[in-house]
Amino acid sequence: MKFFLDTGSVDEIRKAAETGILDGVTTNPSLVAQTGNRDFNGLIREIAEIVNGPVSAEVTATDTEGMVRQAMELREIHQHVVVKIPLLREGIAAVSRVAPQGVKVNVTLCFSATQALLAAKAGAAYISPFVGRLDDISHVGMDLIREIRSIYDNYGFTTEILTASVRHPIHVLEAALAGSDVATMPYKVFEALFKHPLTDIGNEKFLADWKKLHG
Q1: CA 157 to CA 179: how far, in whole Å?
Q2: Do the beta carbons of residue 98 and residue 122 sit within 8 Å?
Q3: What is the domain range of residue 166?
Q4: Is residue 168 within 8 Å of residue 190, measured between CB atoms?
Q5: What's the structural domain count of the chain?
Q6: Looking at residue 99, what is its pLDDT?
Q7: Residues 13-19: contacts with CB within 8 Å, 24+ apart?
Q8: Cα distance between residue 146 and residue 171, in whole Å
Q9: Contact at 8 Å (CB) between 109 and 87?
């Protein structure tokens, strides 16, 4: 499974990239706004150079023509840019128009398996089901990942499942078990994946024993 960071922070991306296991980055208008960086194109270009992998940048238009126009502009920022388009009727129409032109699209704000089916038929490179937001309203978000996996496997769709709205390491684990192609997560969740109290205790004991041996 690929690991993406869901952030607009260059510092977080650099730290995650240092591990050698970061595969890509997803952003959205809210995350970019949090950085205070008004040079959107420059920020996306810098992120793409750091991660050397897919970087999702989202359109802000709500009509099909506007989404198509912005998608063609965003793709010019960097070769690694993936255009995020929301799962609206207008958005699916836009995906159907830009995907055949070689634009890689991440269809975002997916909350049902039928929506994911529409995105795959339109030619999306990625589908982003938001599991955490479904959990928030008493649905089992990970059930959606399993449903999409089954549908895509049934019909041989190449659209990659990108599990989004990840809140904690258990979401990452469950996404991997369900066959998700990608999990995108906040930096704090990425860091939490490395942690286990028994690892820390064991490492401290090994170091303490080494000191005794070579005291």
Answers
A1: 14
A2: no
A3: 2-213
A4: no
A5: 1
A6: 98
A7: 13/47, 13/50, 13/51, 14/50, 15/187, 16/187, 16/190, 17/50, 17/51
A8: 13
A9: yes
Name the nearest CA neighbour of 59 among 108, 118, 117, 97.
108
Residue carrying structure tokens 């150079």: 49
- Per the CB < 8 A criterion, the answer to whether 131 and 145 are in contact is yes
> Which residues does the annotation mark as catalytic?
84
What's the CA gap between 100 and 107, in Å, rounded? Answer: 15
pTM as predicted: 0.93
Q: What is the CATH number of the domain that holds 196?
A: 3.20.20.70
Cβ-in-10-Å burial (0-12, 13-18, 19+) of 100 comes to exposed
Q: pLDDT per residue over 11-38, tens digit each? A: 999 999 999 999 999 998 788 888 887 7
DSSP string, 58-90: E----SHHHHHHHHHHHTTT-TTEEEEEESSHH
